[in-house]
């Protein structure tokens, strides 16, 4: 009763005869296997579960979570296309508590699964240990999971069985190894891949390397956007393209002016196509927050508004899918990837050959000084525009620092990025509140008739929301000033100076 | 935890078969059950393929809680564990006679070692002894198989008289007819007579004399495992239902 089972993972097949042979004085009775059923291995796009050494298997509407310690959780239901928080209550859902909220489960591989039970019997045919075998196989390989359960009063037999299985597993309990065996071709998706840079590397090479990397990341998200698995695909796609565009606009003089302008224009257009969709995603994700901002008697109008948003998102998705599936889009992306495959096809500017480290210091130092100058000028009376510009400068500074981070000391970088991040969060909120107010006003305008009359409930709801958002924006503005004062501390000033300011600047 | 004893002062009436099948019925109903074999012959353990306990010898049964606990073995059935007997159990009376509170030692031992269980079923040896007095005190219910024959009738009368004499609560006694052969006039007559005489003591359920019960020794399993639809299996289920319906005082 209530005895803890033990778990073993074996690469390849489970050799029953070898196992039986290793247990002296016992016989092992195997039940016949269940018929092979197909299974899907579920994870999200960035393979969070795999990174944590976990496997989530869905087979015939049953979910099995193999945890990194080998234990198995089981619950009924399907997980494909679902968010963990939307699964029915059960041990698997509870076991996935830390799974990212915005990521949906999707199949990352599939194969067949068979199960069988066995009993380890003594000379009286008395069961002394019970066990079960779960065999997974894909086109590439096989992996076997064993669970053994001790029975009261038969500890010796249990220890014998465990040591036999330990010996057979040969220490191969690393889940990544098993994952590789099942799905060797599945490369984990990384939204922010590490890019190796050399201090003396010509700046143009750095720029090309970053652009090439993020173009690849963007492309890896296209299928997920089309399949509408979760909103993170589009988000990552846009972030990647934004990084590319930042390289183009921040790495001044690396490419020729004409080419820079043309490419910036091209990437801006690519992003613009997805802008509305992302806005709608954000509104819909924050639906609950909107409802909480205003009293329940105004909820009717908010409901109507979100129904409109949902409808509009469907339309946007159709348009976007058509665009993503088009030959023209594919051609455009393929050409861009080819262009940034190396530096040959690119027109160089005056800074193209400048050493990466030297160039990075110059760019970051200049941008830092600009941020400080702008921030120090902000008082409670400066117009919102100035705050928006500060936000954009901070963003540019952050991008620059992130792009060139591999060239600098990690620890020092961390200590200056942290207060910058905090300030950016506040600036981000400030911006969101202002953008949301504008969007709400625009929404009401589109919902009004020719005489500029609007449905009263809708108007009340929007009015309520705008009032609250405006209050929040004002509060956030004060926070921006406070956070900048922290960022502007003498310690951080010194760090910036020592890291990035050189005489030749 | 409740304690149910299968007891008869007469041998060969089906005590062990009753213990084993009742223990299985309780486990099937979702209770956690310990079947405690107090009979030196170790038949209850044998039916579950559990070997005799080697280390729970002499007075340790009553004195060494950890040894008692360690001697418990899981059966092949969920929720059903067995404490197997061994030959030294024949000397229980000798050990008990040396102990203080010699009539309540069994209860003490069971409470100390078996508190995790919902139900403890005792398979008792057939005699009047210090051990049986311990059983009468420890048990919440005493299930007494009675073959409807003259000798068994006499045994039940002796048991009831003993309870009267010792001022033990007779309401613990739950007799039932065992190894009943309905084609025998003697059996039918005895049943009729005894049901009138012991209105409150005798349960409705009757377990027939059946080859399936004898085959338990061959199969080494409760009757429901290998003859689930047999009369015998149905009868033991009815016995369980009736015991549960009448309830066992929870302690």
UniProtKB/TrEMBL annotation, chain A:
Q: Which residue stretches, if any, does this entry annotate as coiled coil?
A: none
Supply the SMART domains for this chain: CHAD
Q: Which residues form the CHAD domain?
A: 200-491
Q: Name one Pfam family in it.
A: CHAD
Under the heading Gene3D superfamilies, the entry gives: CHAD domain (1.40.20.10)
Q: Please identify the protein, giving its name as recorded.
A: CHAD domain-containing protein
Q: What is the organism of origin for this protein?
A: Ruegeria denitrificans
Which lineage is the organism of this entry classified under, starting from the top rank?
Answer: Bacteria, Pseudomonadati, Pseudomonadota, Alphaproteobacteria, Rhodobacterales
From TrEMBL, chain B:
Please report the name of this protein according to its UniProt entry.
Sporulation initiation inhibitor protein soj
Question: What InterPro entries does the annotation carry?
Answer: AAA_dom, DNA_Partitioning_ATPase, P-loop_NTPase
The record ties this protein, via Pfam families, to: AAA_31
Source organism of the structure = Ruegeria denitrificans
User: CDD domains, from UniProt?
Assistant: ParAB_family
Q: Which residue intervals define the domain AAA in the entry?
A: 1-167
């Amino acid at each position: 009763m209530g005895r803890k089972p033990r778990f073993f993972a074996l690469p390849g097949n489970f050799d029953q005869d070898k196992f039986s042979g290793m247990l002296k004085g016992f016989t092992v009775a195997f039940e016949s296997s269940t018929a092979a059923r197909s299974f899907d291995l579920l994870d999200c796009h960035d393979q969070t579960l795999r990174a944590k050494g976990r496997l989530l298997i869905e087979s015939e509407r049953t979910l099995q979570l193999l945890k990194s310690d080998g234990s198995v959780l089981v619950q009924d239901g399907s997980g494909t296309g679902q968010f963990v928080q939307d699964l029915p209550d059960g041990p698997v859902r509870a076991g996935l508590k830390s799974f990212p909220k915005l990521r949906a489960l999707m199949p990352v591989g599939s194969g067949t699964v068979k199960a069988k039970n066995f009993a380890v019997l003594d000379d009286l045919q008395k069961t002394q240990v019970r066990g079960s075998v779960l065999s997974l196989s894909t086109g590439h390989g096989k992996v076997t999971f064993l669970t053994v359960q001790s029975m009261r009063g038969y500890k010796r037999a249990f220890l014998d069985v465990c040591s036999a299985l330990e010996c057979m597993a040969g220490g191969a309990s690393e889940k990544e190894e098993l994952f590789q065996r099942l799905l060797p071709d599945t490369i984990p998706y990384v939204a922010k891949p590490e890019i190796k840079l050399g201090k003396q590397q010509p700046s143009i090479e750095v720029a090309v390397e970053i652009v090439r990397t993020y173009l690849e990341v963007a492309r890896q998200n296209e299928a997920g956007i089309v399949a509408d698995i979760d909103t993170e695909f589009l988000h990552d796609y846009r972030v990647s393209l934004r990084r590319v565009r930042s390289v183009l606009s921040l790495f001044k003089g690396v490419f020729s002016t004409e080419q820079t302008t043309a490419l910036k224009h091209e990437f801006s257009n690519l992003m613009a196509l997805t802008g509305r969709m992302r806005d709608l995603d954000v509104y819909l994700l924050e639906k609950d927050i909107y409802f909480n901002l205003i009293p329940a008697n105004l909820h009717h109008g908010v409901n109507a508004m979100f129904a409109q948003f949902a409808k509009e998102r469907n339309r946007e998705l159709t348009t976007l899918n058509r665009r993503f599936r088009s030959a023209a889009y594919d051609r455009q992306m393929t050409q861009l990837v080819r262009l940034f495959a190396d530096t040959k096809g690119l027109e160089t500017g005056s800074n193209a050959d400048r050493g990466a480290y030297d160039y990075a210091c110059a760019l970051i130092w200049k941008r830092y000084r600009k941020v400080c100058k702008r921030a120090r000028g902000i008082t409670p009376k400066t117009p919102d525009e100035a705050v928006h510009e500060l936000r954009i400068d901070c963003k540019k500074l952050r991008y620059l620092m992130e792009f060139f981070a591999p060239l600098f000391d990690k620890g020092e970088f961390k200590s200056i990025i942290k207060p910058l991040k905090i300030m950016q969060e506040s600036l981000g909120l400030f911006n969101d509140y202002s953008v949301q107010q504008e969007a709400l006003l625009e929404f009401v305008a589109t919902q009004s008739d020719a005489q500029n009359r609007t449905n009263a409930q809708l108007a009340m709801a929007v009015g309520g929301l705008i009032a609250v958002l405006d209050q929040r924006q004002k509060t956030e503005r004060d926070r921006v000033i406070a956070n900048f004062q922290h960022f502007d501390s003498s310690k951080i000033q010194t760090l910036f100076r020592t890291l990035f300011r050189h005489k030749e600047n | 935890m409740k304690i149910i004893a299968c007891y008869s002062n007469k041998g060969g009436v089906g005590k062990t078969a009753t213990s084993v099948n009742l223990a299985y019925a309780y486990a099937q109903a979702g209770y956690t059950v310990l079947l405690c074999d107090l009979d030196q012959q170790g038949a209850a353990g044998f039916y579950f393929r559990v070997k005799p306990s080697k280390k729970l010898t002499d007075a340790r049964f009553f004195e060494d809680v950890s040894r008692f606990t360690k001697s418990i073995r899981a059966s092949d059935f969920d929720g059903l564990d067995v404490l197997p007997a061994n030959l030294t159990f024949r000397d229980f009376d000798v050990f008990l006679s040396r102990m203080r509170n010699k009539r309540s030692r069994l209860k003490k031992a069971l409470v100390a070692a078996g508190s995790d269980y919902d139900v403890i079923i005792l398979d008792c040896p057939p005699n009047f002894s210090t051990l049986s007095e311990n059983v009468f005190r420890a048990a919440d219910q005493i299930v007494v198989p009675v073959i409807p024959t003259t000798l068994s009738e006499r045994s039940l009368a002796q048991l009831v008289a003993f309870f009267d004499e010792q001022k033990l609560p007779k309401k613990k006694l739950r007799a039932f007819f065992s190894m009943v052969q309905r084609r025998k006039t003697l059996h039918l007559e005895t049943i009729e007579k005894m049901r009138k005489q012991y209105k409150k003591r005798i349960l409705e359920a009757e377990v027939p004399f059946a080859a399936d019960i004898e085959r338990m020794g061959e199969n080494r399993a409760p009757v429901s495992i290998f003859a689930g639809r047999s009369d015998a299996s149905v009868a033991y289920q009815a016995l369980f239902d009736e015991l549960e319906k009448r309830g066992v005082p929870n302690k």
